[in-house]
Amino acid sequence: MGYVIGVDVGGTFTDAVLDDDAGTIVAAKAPSTPPDYSRGVLDVLEALAAQLGAPVEEMLANTHHIAHGTTSSLNALVMGNVPPVGFLTTKGHRDSIYIMNVEGRYLGSSPEELQNVMGQSKSHGLIPKKHALEVTERLDRDGNVVVALDEDSARESIRTLLADGLQAIAVSLLWSFRNPVHEQRIRELVHEIDPTIFVSLSSEVSPRIREFARNATTIMSTQIGPGLRDYLGSLEAKLRERKLAGPLLVMQSNGGAVAAAEAPRNAISTVGSVLTGGVVGAVSLGKQLGHRNIIATDVGGTTFLIGLVVDGEPVRASSTVINHHPINVPTLKVHAIGSGGGAIARLDSGGNLQVGPHSAQAVPGPACYGQGGTEPTNTDANLVLGILPERGLLGGRKPLDKELAREAIRTRIAEPLGLSIEEAAAAIYAVQNAQTGDLLRKTVVEAGHDPRDFVLYAFGGAGPAHCAAYAAEVGVREVIVPLGQVASAFSAYGLASSNIVLAAELSDPGTMPMDPLRAARNFDRLESQVREQLDRQGLTYTSVQIEREIDMRFAMQLAEVATPLPDGALDAAAIAHASDLFEQKYADLYGAGSGFREAGIQAITFRVRATGILPFSPALPELKSADSTDASAARLGSRKVCLDNAHGYVDTDVYDYSKLLAGHVLSGPAIVEVPTTTVVVPHNTTGTVDRLGNLNIVAK
């Protein structure tokens, strides 16, 4: 059957995992290479091939597919590093993207930011007004043409945008999700004038009610579409030159992949691609370990990410927020802050120690990398504390300079605060663990869950060094550090584990109980769309799973809840059951008794999700069992390590992971060195190697 490869392109490192579905799993890590991330992808593929003992061309010739995840699209949007695009909308509605439905003033802001009224920025515009033009046309709410499209004025607006050098145009007309005829005609007019222009239609990108969110989603998808098209096209061409046989797939926010050729037309669906890989991997590993409630945490070089798996299924959301704008993207619900290994430690205007959100990333990297970085990071602090080995990362292939780390901490943190270098490093470590613990609390507790009912999985290059500490912040009793063959490349393992997942949706507001025939027509239309998309992926599936859901709300409210519908024919009983289920899910989210059925229930948006199951199910291989719990044969020695101020620097046993066997038990404090990460077993805990090679950390 060949190989399946998952490639996770992060801001600092690019990870890859290869699986042959017959027990062979190998992982590799290489530095990311901004701005041309494809070089890092090719580097990590070379590293995989080296482990197989084969040329990269031979490996790729035997590859069924590559599943690729990247933060490049999300980073481009967050940092505003996108090309100018044009926007065409219905006459009289251009300013909706500047008024922002008022919510654009506060969406995505923390309570602290909202309280600082004077410090808030009011400039969240997506595009300058000169690039937002109107066309004469009008549909009513049922999709009937009230005013025909004035094609002459539309051509004039198109030429005005193109004359300003724009290479991409977003089109979002009023009520177009009920009838796309005018949007489709405008695309034809654009391509009559210039067939090379990239065009996105809201009726294809986001056929959902609410004008502002639909406009914002379409514009952002247009901003990243051409760049994604060029990057994927170039990468795929390079892979074909190296004999890649199977397709290149791109991970989406919904937890599934899509063919690279299909991704740019709905580019916004890829914005959370890397963020979801770890959650998908957690679901896969959870099936092997028997865990159904999982907190998946990923600490990479730039970000700290959290996703939840509840009762065996990842928690989903129907939208997200980027730069104060609501984005209509079905996604696995992942929370993130800028608190990775490369997060920069600094003093704010009040002299308080802050860690992140800015990151040293791969270039210049932490000060200890010796690449010109002068600002202290989490990685620098961990090196000074003895957590990281002085010989470097990646088994010594990435050298670290402890003196550069000490100097950065001394000048930027220690001396201004009147601390020793060691005390300042310990403070950075403590702040990192506290703020990641805060995000854990917000994610789990505010969603109505008890952290004690969950197992925490920790991965990423920096995650294993901090996981036991931030898990203790919220009372999680058991921590699993996935090691084995995947180690810090666990998100890439998730990518390799992913299937093809496609979603289609359509807003058709109506009062419940809705006519079952009307609901069935909507679902049949959407199912036809996703099955046609599945056929275009160029892959063979072992099976196809279809899921249906409706976003519902109580009348006169805005909060919508995605409610699943059962398989099979829809009748009055099925529709009534959906209303009952909506009420239960609403109560779970907002509290028992918070709903009021007498106000009426409305169905708003219909959605179908199709999963094409691929003939690969990567499973971690069993590890050889030890004869006893004694792990002394894997002990490398000891070094002075400081994990908290209470204990200070103490002699700490250091273990070589490659020599550990299933059943070995480590007593904290201990350090486990893996070529791609470092695991901390804190004081008063034990670490037990399980049958798959993972390290299970629990309090004594």
TrEMBL record:
<dbReference type="Pfam" id="PF01968">
    <property type="entry name" value="Hydantoinase_A"/>
</dbReference>
<dbReference type="InterPro" id="IPR049517">
    <property type="entry name" value="ACX-like_C"/>
</dbReference>
<dbReference type="InterPro" id="IPR045079">
    <property type="entry name" value="Oxoprolinase-like"/>
</dbReference>
<protein>
    <submittedName>
        <fullName>Hydantoinase/oxoprolinase family protein</fullName>
    </submittedName>
</protein>
<dbReference type="InterPro" id="IPR008040">
    <property type="entry name" value="Hydant_A_N"/>
</dbReference>
<dbReference type="GO" id="GO:0005829">
    <property type="term" value="C:cytosol"/>
</dbReference>
<dbReference type="InterPro" id="IPR002821">
    <property type="entry name" value="Hydantoinase_A"/>
</dbReference>
<feature type="domain" description="Hydantoinase/oxoprolinase N-terminal">
    <location>
        <begin position="5"/>
        <end position="193"/>
    </location>
</feature>
<dbReference type="GO" id="GO:0006749">
    <property type="term" value="P:glutathione metabolic process"/>
</dbReference>
<feature type="domain" description="Hydantoinase A/oxoprolinase">
    <location>
        <begin position="214"/>
        <end position="500"/>
    </location>
</feature>
<dbReference type="Pfam" id="PF05378">
    <property type="entry name" value="Hydant_A_N"/>
</dbReference>
<feature type="domain" description="Acetophenone carboxylase-like C-terminal">
    <location>
        <begin position="522"/>
        <end position="691"/>
    </location>
</feature>
<dbReference type="InterPro" id="IPR043129">
    <property type="entry name" value="ATPase_NBD"/>
</dbReference>
<dbReference type="GO" id="GO:0017168">
    <property type="term" value="F:5-oxoprolinase (ATP-hydrolyzing) activity"/>
</dbReference>
<dbReference type="Pfam" id="PF19278">
    <property type="entry name" value="Hydant_A_C"/>
</dbReference>
